[in-house]
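User: Second chain of the day. Same drill as before.
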Amino acid sequence: MTIINSMDVPTYMIMLLVIFGMDVYAFIKYRKVKAPWKVIVYGNPVLLIVLAINRVIEEYAPDTHLYNVSFAVTLTIGGVYLVISFIAGYINKKRS
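Assistant: Same format as last time:
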């Protein structure tokens, strides 16, 4: 069992809100910078929202069709985010 799965829901949500706050700070601080890595920063809140919804559904409605759909959506969005991260890293490496 991982540390994330052993957290209760309020602690998990507070952790996600702190990360979300750091994303908002990054939006404000780097709003005029033009760089490929900003795509990752803009995609992170979407991933955090999906993770929060998935955790709530997992906690309060396990073994339902809604949970299965939520799990599939989370895996899909996580995979897309990972591919976008790799592409942004490749573009950054090519530019330097």
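The first helix runs from residue 3 to 6.

User: Great, on to the next one.
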